[in-house]
């Protein structure tokens, strides 16, 4: 929005041309989202407390979590508001990649909101029935996947980038829709499963968003993309602003979500953030690198899949409790130790993912 205003004002005062630079808008994007989160965070927390919108704690979970009961939840509303405001202000709204990302964030945020509403307002511990949650996630993923596929203007937009191989860029064809579907739905659910401890999900989300911002910048630059042998996608560069908005909103939320948390993001935040990482990875054609960088999310999701599968097939559990962060809690690890060690793992995996761009 401000990009258009700056373009108009440039004809009267050339200094406004500074807002045409992507790096400048990215910096303003992160600062805007951060300041919005910090300013409105306390107001939202007080409002949630007044409405008695508090966390529902599982009776079969770690005993240390019983003290979290009643902590305000649905703080993801703050994250989403910060991301949308910052992106709408600083991104080029003529870019279809920006709108595709906002569509996924907003739509999955609505699904998460309904789930949280049923849990904390209507006091239904099951929330939105799993099959309906998965149905709407699927509809959202398929809508955006089909839209991107049928509006693609270049072969690079539907090719698969394989890490470590510079000349392997197979065309996906209709399989692009299938892959996009699984990336968005899978990442959305994986981040949702990770969101079980104070700050556990938001920091890896921030780290992956930073890495995706770097990749978006490189992909959108014709010289860097040629040097790294990755597909050049001019529209991808604008995703830098969206990524920095996610980073700013995440940092602002972490201010209140760090241990011991004053507010939880709820499904309205985790489903939307997971979907955001998934769609951005698809748009910059780095779905496979997302698996590496988001290894903590993958680990959490796999622990649940293995636990459920093992119990149904063998009648035995692999972990003391799934997702895996609860397993370590039940082994006696203090919550801050689990959180920080998972953060460290995430840092290492994000760096490993970035390194694959050069090792080809």
UniProtKB/TrEMBL annotation:
Keywords associated with the record: Cell cycle, Cell division, Cell membrane, Cell shape, Cell wall biogenesis/degradation, Magnesium, Membrane, Metal-binding, Peptidoglycan synthesis, Transferase, Transmembrane, Transmembrane helix
One record GO biological process: regulation of cell shape
Necessary cofactors: Mg(2+)
Primary subcellular site in the record, as a coarse category: membrane
GO molecular function terms listed in the Swiss-Prot or TrEMBL record: metal ion binding; phospho-N-acetylmuramoyl-pentapeptide-transferase activity
Highest taxon, organism lineage: Bacteria
EC numbers for this chain: 2.7.8.13
Pathway of action: Cell wall biogenesis; peptidoglycan biosynthesis
Family affiliation: Belongs to the glycosyltransferase 4 family. MraY subfamily.
Protein name according to UniProt: Phospho-N-acetylmuramoyl-pentapeptide-transferase
Species for this entry: Pseudoalteromonas prydzensis
């Amino acid at each position: 929005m401000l990009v258009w205003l700056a373009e108009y004002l440039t004809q009267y005062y050339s200094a406004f041309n500074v807002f045409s630079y992507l790096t400048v808008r990215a910096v303003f994007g992160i600062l805007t989202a951060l300041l919005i989160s910090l300013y409105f965070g306390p107001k939202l927390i007080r409002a949630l407390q007044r409405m008695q919108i508090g966390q529902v704690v599982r009776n079969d979970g770690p005993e240390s979590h019983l003290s979290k009961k009643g902590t305000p939840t649905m703080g993801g509303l703050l994250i989403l508001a910060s991301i949308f405001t910052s992106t709408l202000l600083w991104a080029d709204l003529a870019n279809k990649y920006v709108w595709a990302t906002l569509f996924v964030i907003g739509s999955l945020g609505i699904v998460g909101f309904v789930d949280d509403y049923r849990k904390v307002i209507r006091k239904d511990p099951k929330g939105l029935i799993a099959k309906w949650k998965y149905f709407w996630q699927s509809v959202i993923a398929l809508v955006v996947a089909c839209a991107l596929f049928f509006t693609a203007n270049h072969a690079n937009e539907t090719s698969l980038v394989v890490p470590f191989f510079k000349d392997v860029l197979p065309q996906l064809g209709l399989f692009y829709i299938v892959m996009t579907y699984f990336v968005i739905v899978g990442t959305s659910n994986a981040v949702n499963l990770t969101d079980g401890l104070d700050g556990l999900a938001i920091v890896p989300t921030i780290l992956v968003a930073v890495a995706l911002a770097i990749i978006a910048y490189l992909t959108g630059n014709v010289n860097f993309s040629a040097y790294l042998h990755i597909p050049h996608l001019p529209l991808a560069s604008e995703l830098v602003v969206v990524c920095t908005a996610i980073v700013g909103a995440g940092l602002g939320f972490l201010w209140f979500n760090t241990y011991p948390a004053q507010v939880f993001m709820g499904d309205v935040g985790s489903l939307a953030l997971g979907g955001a990482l998934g769609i951005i990875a698809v748009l910059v054609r780095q779905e496979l690198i997302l698996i590496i960088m988001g290894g903590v999310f993958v680990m959490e999701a796999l622990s649940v899949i293995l636990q459920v599968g093992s119990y149904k097939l063998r009648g035995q559990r692999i972990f003391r409790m799934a997702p895996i962060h609860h397993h370590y809690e039940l082994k006696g690890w203090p919550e801050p130790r689990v959180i920080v060690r998972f953060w460290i793992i995430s840092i290492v995996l994000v760096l490993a993912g970035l390194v694959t761009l050069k090792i080809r």
